[in-house]
Specification:
By secondary structure, this protein is α/β, with parallel strands linked by helices. It is built from eleven helices and eight strands.
Length: 302
């Protein structure tokens, strides 16, 4: 019997994006990753913002590479999904950008994105950001790209540019083209403010050939709430030429909204009776993690 080869996470993600624009909900822990997989999504996202606030710190680059790699491994193992992970500014200079690619790949990630902000970075939808010089950003991308090529497993290096909110839309296009020339195979234009801007950015990237031979780089759209970008459906992003849409903090916001309301009611009532019908039951939890009490549980061999 011939056994089909198991594709690496980056290869699986590429195949999914080649078929259509896909949604990548943000997983802030392994259980959340399992739920994303159970819901039928083809991949998930690990957000720097969600990871940071889950650890009780703001999204300003405080957490370490080891912290992120551990979380990526837990989510990738539990979900079985290809994971795109936030790498902020690369945890240092070019040498660290290279190490980040290798560590993330070993943790099971399909790819990562590096941004061109100065450290300490800020949320992409806040004002007051500052950018590193373009040659500095390109140096990191080249180092990350070389590492990905040596891994030879389809790992995706995505370049995020925050230039639109700092230097203007044309600067974002110029930087994006330079990043593709430096080895990025995917682009992430952060902080765009209209469907028209997303369309114009995608149009400007047509025919910008990647080092991997694609005629146009993959494009990632950030569908975060309460920011500068209006709510745009995944299908519409696909029509505009985007490959994937991340929802970085959506599930965390839903979860913490429910936690806050439950705590308020518990403080008031002194009992959980008023919100027990909103809870995931013990049976539902065990079903999600594939556990039957009294039966030996097999760790998934992914």
């Amino acid at each position: 019997m011939t056994i089909a080869p198991v594709l690496a996470p980056g290869q699986r993600l590429r195949e999914a994006m080649d078929r259509s624009c896909i949604a990548l909900p943000g997983a802030f822990n392994a259980l959340c990753g399992m739920a994303i997989s159970r819901a039928g999504f083809q991949g998930c996202y690990v957000s720097g913002a969600a990871t940071s606030v889950s650890a009780g710190v703001p999204d300003v680059g405080i957490l370490t590479l080891d912290h992120f790699s551990k979380l990526i491994r837990e989510i990738a193992d539990a979900s079985g999904l290809p994971v795109i992970a936030d790498a902020d500014t690369g945890f240092g200079e070019a040498e660290m950008a290279r190490r980040t690619v290798i560590d993330y790949s070993r943790a099971g990630a399909a790819g990562l994105h590096l941004e061109d902000q100065v450290f300490p970075k800020r949320c992409g939808h806040l004002d007051g950001k500052a950018l590193v010089p373009i040659d500095h950003a390109c140096e990191k991308i080249r180092a990350a790209s070389r590492a990905a090529q040596q891994l030879n497993n389809g790992f995706i290096v995505c370049a995020r540019t925050d230039a639109k909110g700092v230097e203007g839309f044309e600067a974002a296009i110029s930087r994006a083209k330079a990043y593709v020339s430096s080895g990025a195979e995917m682009l992430f234009p952060e902080g765009l403010t209209s469907e028209d801007e997303f369309a114009k950015f995608a149009a400007a990237m047509k025919g910008v050939k990647t080092i991997g031979g694609r005629s146009t780089p993959y494009l990632l759209a950030n569908m975060t709430e309460f920011g500068k970008t209006p709510i745009i459906p995944v299908t519409r992003f696909g029509e505009l030429g985007y490959s994937c849409v991340i929802f970085p903090v959506s599930l965390l916001r839903v979860a913490m909204g429910a936690v806050t309301r439950a705590l308020t009611q518990l403080q008031k009532d002194g009992a959980v009776s008023g919100f027990i019908d909103q809870m995931q039951t013990r049976k539902e939890l065990y079903e999600l993690i594939g556990y039957t009490p009294g039966t030996e549980w097999d760790y998934p061999a992914r």
